[in-house]
Design goal:
434 Repressor (Amino-terminal Domain); five-stranded antiparallel beta sheet; elongated; alpha+beta; Immunoglobulin-like
Length: 255
Amino acid sequence: MSVGADLARARDERGLSVEDVSSATRIRAGLIRAIEADQFEPCGGAVYARGHIRSIARAVGTDPEPLVAEFDRTHVEEPAPVPVPNQPTDPDLAARADRRRPNWTGAMAAALLVICALAGYGIFKNGTAKPGTSVANDFPTVPSPSTSPTSPSPLASPPPTAVAMVPPRDAVVLIRVTGSKTWLHVETLTHRVLFSAILNHGEARTFRDAHGLTLVIGNAPAVQLVADSQDFGVPRSSGNVAHVTVKPAGDVTFV
């Protein structure tokens, strides 16, 4: 029997539906049906097909290695890479990809400036709102030359509402391909597809959503994952396939 037929038979023997296997592996039901029909082109390449075969085989309770060996015997050629629309291909791609990486230091500095500006505005507003009170009295006094340097005037604290007015962070993910090419599928938590294609060596993509993101990485050992300013390096994976969920405030889980 073929690889797809063996997987379908094992699934039927376990009494599982395609949707059950899809939930267990995070592989789309349509792609599972294509694999069971021995149509491996939608996988995007032999590397990803092997990873999907292993994941599906484990989910249906069968040994994946004979199936992978049969796949290698009958699919000896690697499919040509699927071109990604509007992607640069010149030699300095890696350098431009590095320039597109989020500048977390700059973002934090900008946020600090906003907080300081709001704090200053709140102090000024409080000072002018009191009748008969000088605005200068609400600001720290600069010591004169005759004032002792050991008793500096206390600095005014920023109003507690200043931090609350800074908008909460979105869930932000950076994927950078450091090895060979990889297939990448990115959705929001509301199942809106943001990206589904192959990334080649040196390419980098950044994704952002206010509620959270889910990622399926076909060749996890070939990528670097940065989520909410945390560099996770190579993401944890099952075989070669990694399933990652990223929510705001640094909530990152691997399946």
